[in-house]
Design goal:
Layout: H1 2-10, H2 40-55, H3 57-63, H4 70-78, E1 88-89, E2 93-97, H5 108-111, E3 120-124, E4 130-132, E5 138-139, H6 141-145, H7 155-175, E6 186-188, H8 191-200, H9 210-214, E7 218-220, E8 225-231, E9 237-245, E10 252-257, E11 266-269, H10 276-284, E12 285-289, H11 292-298, E13 306-309, E14 330-333, H12 339-352, E15 357-359, H13 369-374, H14 381-386, H15 399-411, H16 413-416, H17 425-430, E16 439-443, H18 450-462, E17 468-472, H19 477-489, H20 500-508, E18 512-514, H21 523-537, E19 541-545, H22 562-580, E20 583-587, H23 609-613, E21 616-622, E22 632-639, E23 646-649, E24 664-665, E25 672-673, H24 676-679, E26 682-683
Helix pairs in contact: 2-3, 2-7, 3-21, 18-19, 21-22
């Protein structure tokens, strides 16, 4: 009865809050006090529910999109006495007082919620996840919504909320990770030692040594590393970056610790002229860069802005970082002058609110700040920054707007072609590469190995940093993960169990996420999960295996034509791929045809929309059962980018479950050579 009363206080809308595989209803009477009082099963379920946001980000954030609206969040806060009904809506987050940390339910009536400083929480407007500025806890809106008590609550309900708060604090305390400490051997720099460090790292002479002092940088003489702390919204050190010059290549290498999900960034206020106006601009305008070198370059020029270095570069932008950027009204994204940097800048802008974002277009005339600072021509950083442009109406453009994009594509043709496959060099010659924003359709006879090929195909890309979201509706995720592990190891894991831990640790570091859907699913639910995962994890490649499982046989759609329904689903994925600049691969079964006939683009099940909307159509042709000398091969039947069509032989290796093309040795020779048909395929 306790949780029923709590639900009646805030009237939340909770759908699907029953814990998976436990039968425990989080809105039921079992979750009322400390976990130790709930019994072993319920205590485990309650802890699992509260810890999902931290320990299981791939399952939690991408599989269960936020269901509460921004209006509901603001309405709950406004009616609450815990926060005084006050909230501030920013570009990406809603800020309000934390109703849990250092706040006892009912005590605000005695001294008021604003009597003394109170920790704040930042609620993401897109995902609904919140971050507490005091304890740095990352959780869901449903977890903290109960603590926003309305003014007209009963004394009994206050006591019940206090018990629930104690349980919540106990769970948070167990999950709090240790703070990241700077290396013990790293010594703080002053002006003189900063000059020595710049000389030792052989950095550009235009960099001002005082910038290192401002950043509170440290020097580790044992490892010859420059250590720069990353701070969160409360100016606490939550990680650090290291800079060192490698001994072999002589290049500057940068490393972030921890290497994932950091909430910290590096601030550096650029020098400016005197006057109140310059001071105000530096507090409201920020320039976002990817590396510490670019940050130091900006810090050496008078720009009337604050330079900000993001923690993970092009890899991703964790939503925990967004609160630290809320105070800026204008953000200029100055990334690498290549297509990858440009694509990432546009994607990050959607997270940061496009209305306040400007871009430095990637061309030879607009290099990164550090490169511009070191060029002999002495490119003026202020002049480049003045050319930053904003995105206007998305439906109308002119060649003047496209001109720099066209120039950038021509100057970076190799990167425009996309990520190259390591396992399938033939595809590089036919498709040129794996590009964002495209739609690929894969088809083939039943049992020909479409899923096995696609898992090997996606693993190749994931090992090169392409964030992948797998939607396997035919086979379960455990079996799919086992296949991927075996393909990565190159031999059966059942015969090499001693290598499982090492292989599993290596695989866990890959940017691969799985949707938990299995069997028939409605397209709306699937698209919500994909949209959410793409926002949270910066997904670049979505795989749907296969499309027919989303057509379903629900009563509400039994009167709809199956071809029309399939066209609508394909239209949804085509729109998502273009709008989110994400590559989507759809596995579609063909129509039932005679085994002796070769499959064509017209063999794809459904209407013509699948082949029309697709940028690439791949067909697995299997002639082994119809001909003595029959072969299995992959046919590129459509290639919208370059127009090259052809075939790639598929030789299956049962030990590794892989079709990867391997180099073969000539008889009597130690040199490894590659047969033309295996390495290059056949271009038609």
């Amino acid at each position: 009865m306790l949780m029923k009363r709590l639900l009646s206080l805030t009237k939340p809308v909770h759908n699907g809050n029953r814990l998976w595989n436990t039968g425990v209803n989080l809105n039921g009477p079992d979750c009322v006090s400390k976990p130790s009082q709930l019994g072993p099963v319920y205590s485990m379920a309650w802890k699992r529910y509260l810890s999902m946001g931290i320990h299981h980000p791939s399952f939690d954030e991408s599989q269960k999109p936020v269901t509460v609206s921004l209006y509901q969040i603001k309405k709950t806060i406004k009616a609450s006495s815990s926060s005084g009904g006050e909230s501030v809506e920013g570009a990406t987050c809603v800020q309000t007082f934390c109703p849990v940390c250092h706040t006892v339910p009912g005590a605000e009536a005695e001294k008021g919620p604003l009597a003394e400083p109170c920790p704040r929480i930042y609620i993401n407007k897109t995902t609904g996840n919140f971050t507490c500025s005091s304890c740095q806890y990352l959780g869901r809106w449903e977890q903290i919504e109960k603590f926003f008590l309305p003014y007209n609550r009963s004394p009994k309900s206050v006591q019940e909320i206090r018990k629930l708060r104690d349980a919540f604090l106990e769970i948070k305390k167990e999950q709090e990770g240790g703070t990241v400490s700077l290396p013990v051997n790293a010594v703080a720099l002053d002006a003189e030692s900063a000059k020595t460090v710049l000389i030792q790292l052989q950095l550009d002479e235009h960099i001002i040594p005082e910038t290192l002092v401002t950043l509170k940088a440290r020097w580790n003489s044992e490892s010859n590393e420059l250590v720069i702390p990353l701070v969160d919204v409360e100016d606490r050190v939550v990680g650090f970056k290291t800079l060192r010059r490698s001994d072999c290549a002589g290049e500057i290498t940068e490393r972030t610790i921890p290497d994932a999900n950091l909430s910290g960034i590096i601030y550096l206020r650029c020098p400016s002229g005197t006057g109140a106006k310059a001071k105000d601009q530096s507090q409201t305008n920020a320039i976002l860069v990817l590396t510490v070198l670019d940050l130091l370059a900006l810090g050496s020029v008078k720009l009337n802005a604050t330079a900000v270095c993001l923690p993970h570069g092009l890899k991703n932008l964790p939503q925990q970082c967004l609160p630290a950027l809320e105070r800026f009204q204008r953000l200029t994204l100055w990334f690498n002058y290549d297509t990858a940097g440009w694509d990432t800048a546009r994607h990050y802008a959607k997270k940061l609110d496009e209305r306040r974002c400007l871009f430095v277009r990637p061309t030879d005339q607009h290099p990164t700040p550090y490169q511009a600072l070191g060029q002999k021509e002495g490119l003026e950083l202020r002049a480049i920054l003045a050319k930053a442009q904003t995105i206007l109406h998305q439906s109308i453009t002119t060649f003047r707007t496209l001109r720099q994009d066209v120039l950038s594509d021509l100057q970076n043709i190799d990167k425009v072609q996309g990520v190259k496959w390591q396992r399938y060099p033939s595809l590089n010659k036919l498709l040129k590469g794996h590009r964002k924003g495209e739609l690929t359709v894969l088809t083939g006879p039943t049992g020909c190995g479409k899923t096995t090929f696609m898992s090997d195909y996606s693993l190749d890309l994931a090992q090169q940093g392409v964030s992948t979201l797998w939607g396997s509706f035919e086979i379960r995720n455990t079996r799919l993960a086992a296949t991927l592990l075996r393909q990565m190891l190159g031999r059966p894991l059942s015969d090499n169990l001693i290598e499982f831990e090492r292989c599993a640790d290596e695989f866990e570091r890959l940017p691969i996420y799985f949707m938990t859907f299995h069997g028939q699913q409605p397209i709306k639910l699937v698209m919500e999960a994909i949209e959410h995962a793409q926002y949270v994890h910066d997904i670049n490649h979505v795989i749907i295996d296969n499309l027919q499982f989303m057509m379903g046989v629900l009563d509400e759609g039994k009167h709809l034509d199956r071809y029309w329904k399939q066209d609508a689903i394909i239209g949804s994925f085509r729109s998502f791929a273009t709008r989110r600049n994400c590559h989507v691969t759809l596995v579609i079964h063909p129509r039932k045809e005679r085994d002796t006939d070769e499959l064509t683009t017209s063999s794809i099940f459904g209407g013509a929309k699948a082949s029309q909307e697709a940028d690439n159509v791949l067909i697995i042709q299997d002639k082994r059962l119809t001909s003595v000398r029959g072969k299995k091969y992959l046919q590129v039947a459509k290639n919208r980018y370059s127009g090259d069509l052809g075939i790639m032989p598929l030789d299956f290796d049962k030990a590794s479950l892989s079709y990867a093309q391997r180099k073969k040795q000539k008889e009597g020779s130690d040199d490894t050579t590659t047969e033309p048909g295996d390495a290059h395929g056949v271009i038609l």
